[in-house]
Amino acid sequence: GQSLEQPSEVTAVEGAIVQINCTYQTSGFYGLSWYQQHDGGAPTFLSYNALDGLEETGRFSSFLSRSDSYGYLLLQELQMKDSASYFCAVYTGGFKTIFGAGTRLFVKA
Amino acid sequence: DADVTQTPRNRITKTGKRIMLECSQTKGHDRMYWYRQDPGLGLRLIYYSFDVKDINKGEISDGYSVSRQAQAKFSLSLESAIPNQTALYFCATSGDRATDTQYFGPGTRLTVL
Question: pLDDT tens digits, residue range B71-108?
Fold first, then answer.
């Protein structure tokens, strides 16, 4: 079967750094995406990694290791507004994307 | 104006009723998707379409049907709603075949009593 594993919840304090991990097992792999979803809102795209390494976009970075079937989302200088759910997703190339169950991030003051 | 819109935003219905959820997009994307979201289960794919003549079942299509009326419109129907179809439903579009980056509508919260 195909699966993506990510922690269900993570808690961190404002100003800190937090890492959300994602491991995957899929029949095909084109790339790993991350989406953010605030309560009551729609998922919004954050990043996409097709190749190994770290991609940085402002306070957010995303990492991929294809050999380990592993990636992570790194959030720096956490702000209260970063409290949300974060989904990793694998584009299998089979004309569809598989989403993980999501990690709920709580940012405390 | 929103690029991907869904109607209705909220709906309460009774078991056995037929329900249609509608999705429209102005992004000009070929790919459109319907997902349902349940707490702790993430986003699960119901149906997807790559153009007006192409409809494909996702992982949880039983009890649902779709219609792609035009490039910009993709509707999801529940022929006879049941309580375990109570969920948050999202429509999404994608125009990037290399990454399948998806853009989501605001969602429809459906309650089946």
Answer: 999 999 999 999 999 999 999 999 988 899 999 999 99
Q: Give the separation between CA B89 and CA B23, rounded to whole angstroms.
A: 11
pLDDT in tens, A45-69: 999 999 999 999 899 999 999 999 9
**Phi then psi dihedrals of residue B85, to 5 deg:** -95, 5
* DSSP strand pairing (A103-108 vs A9-13): parallel
Q: State how far residue A8 is from chain B, nearest Cα, in angstroms.
A: 8
Q: What is the edge-to-edge ordering of all strands in the sheet holding A70-75?
A: A3-5, A18-25, A70-75, A60-65, A53-57
Q: B39 pairs with which residues across the strands?
A: none
Cβ(B99)–Cβ(A48) below 8 Å: yes
**Do A65 and A71 contact (CB within 8 A), yes or no?**
yes
Please say whether the beta carbons of B59 and B45 come within 8 A. Answer: yes
Question: Is the minimum CB–CB distance between A62 and chain B shorter than 8 Å?
Answer: no
Please tell me the distance in Å from A91's CA to the nearest CA on chain B: 7
Cβ distance A45 to B101 less than 8 Å, yes or no, reads: yes
Cβ neighbours for B62, distance < 8 A, ≥ 6 positions apart: none
B48 contacts A96? CB cut-off 8 A: yes
Sort strands B10-13 and B108-112 into parallel, antiparallel or unpaired.
parallel
A30 touches chain B (CB under 8 A): yes
Quote the CA–CA distance of B63 and B61 in Å, as a whole number. Answer: 6
